Automatic annotation (TrEMBL):
Binding site for a divalent metal cation 1: D97, D108, E239
Record's function text: Removes the N-terminal methionine from nascent proteins. The N-terminal methionine is often cleaved when the second residue in the primary sequence is small and uncharged (Met-Ala-, Cys, Gly, Pro, Ser, Thr, or Val). Requires deformylation of the N(alpha)-formylated initiator methionine before it can be hydrolyzed.
Sequence positions that bind substrate: H80, H178
InterPro entries associated with the record: Creatinase/aminopeptidase-like, Pept_M24, Pept_M24_MAP, Pept_M24A_MAP1
Catalytic activity line of the entry: Release of N-terminal amino acids, preferentially methionine, from peptides and arylamides
One annotated Gene Ontology cellular component of this protein: cytosol
Superkingdom in the source lineage: Bacteria
CDD domains: MetAP1
UniProt source species: Bremerella alba
Protein name per Swiss-Prot or TrEMBL: Methionine aminopeptidase
GO annotation, biological process: proteolysis
C-alpha cells in the first residue's frame, strides 16, 4: 500500500533530508587519496549523533547486523560496502549511501565521488548515472506512471553503452526507510503489469539509479553485505529523496 504524505509531513521529511545532505557535504570535504572509508563513516556517524538522529543503516539485520552509519562502495562495488581500513587511492570512485531518521521521519541519499583525478570512463559513468537521476526529477511532474519515467532513465544509461543494475531498486520512504512502492530504474512488462504506480502529489520516493560500465551481474562478498559486479567493471550510484507536490518535485535531500 502506497502512503501519500501531507504538506506538513513532507516538511518534516525535509528536515531529515537536509541532515543527510549535510552528511554528504561533510563526505565531499573529506574524500581524497589516503583517507580510509572508516574515517568517512565516523564523520557521518558523529554528525547524526550530534543532531540527535538515528542512523538508518546501523543495525539492519543480515549475516551480521550492518555495523555502520554509511554504506561505502568503491569502484566495482555497487552497494552495501562496509566501511573499514580500506584506503582510498587516486583514481578510485567511491559511492557513499546514508540515511537518517529524526523527529520520526527518514531521509536517504547516495552520491558517487571522484578520488583525485579519475579516468575519462569513470567521469562518463558518473555523469550518465547522475543524469539518469536528473531525468527522474524532471519527469516526475509530467508523466502519469512511474514506468514512463523509468523507461527514460534506462534509455539514458543504455544509449551511453552502460548497464542498469536491475536487481536493485529504489523505494518509498517515510516513517521507515523502506516503504512501498518499489521503484525500479528500468522498464519491464512484468513491472508494468504487477508493480507500476500512478504519480500523484504526496508521493515520496528514494530514487537511486545504479549503473555499471560492463554487465549488470553481481556477486555477494563473504561479509554478507557488499555487492560487486562479477566482471569487476566500475559502478556508480546516485540517490535523492524526492517528494512530488502540487507545485512540482521537491528534492528533500538537495539544496533548499
Amino acid at each position: 500500500m502506497i502512503t501519500l504524505r501531507s504538506k506538513r509531513e513532507i516538511e518534516k521529511m525535509h528536515l531529515a533530508g537536509q541532515l543527510v545532505r549535510q552528511a554528504h557535504q561533510r563526505v565531499a570535504e573529506l574524500v581524497k587519496p589516503g583517507i580510509t572509508t572508516a574515517v568517512l563513516d565516523q564523520a557521518v556517524d558523529d554528525l547524526f549523533s550530534d543532531a540527535g538522529a538515528i542512523p538508518l543503516f546501523k543495525g539492519v539485520p543480515g549475516k551480521i547486523p550492518f555495523p555502520a552509519a554509511t554504506c561505502i562502495s568503491v569502484n566495482d562495488e555497487v552497494v552495501h560496502g562496509i566501511p573499514g581500513k580500506r584506503i582510498l587511492r587516486e583514481g578510485d570512485i567511491v559511492s557513499v549511501d546514508t540515511g537518517a531518521k529524526i523527529g520520526g521521519w527518514c531521509g536517504d541519499s547516495a552520491w558517487t565521488y571522484a578520488v583525485g583525478e579519475i579516468s575519462d570512463e569513470a567521469k562518463k559513468l558518473m555523469q550518465v548515472t547522475e543524469r539518469a537521476l536528473q531525468i527522474a526529477i524532471e519527469l516526475l511532474p509530467v508523466k502519469k506512471r512511474w514506468s514512463q519515467v523509468a523507461k527514460e532513465m534506462q534509455s539514458e544509461v543504455e544509449s551511453a553503452g552502460f548497464s542498469v543494475i536491475t536487481t536493485l531498486v529504489g523505494h518509498g520512504i517515510g516513517t521507515t526507510m523502506h516503504e512501498e512502492p518499489q521503484v525500479p530504474n528500468y522498464d519491464s512488462r512484468e513491472f508494468r503489469q504487477k508493480g507500476d504506480f500512478d504519480l500523484r502529489p504526496g508521493l515520496v520516493l528514494a530514487v537511486e539509479p545504479m549503473v555499471a560500465v560492463g554487465r549488470e551481474d553481481l556477486y555477494l562478498h563473504g561479509d554478507g553485505w557488499t555487492l560487486s559486479t562479477k566482471d569487476r567493471s566500475l559502478t556508480a550510484h546516485f540517490e535523492h529523496t524526492l517528494a512530488l507536490t502540487t507545485s512540482g518535485v521537491r528534492i528533500l535531500t538537495g539544496e533548499g
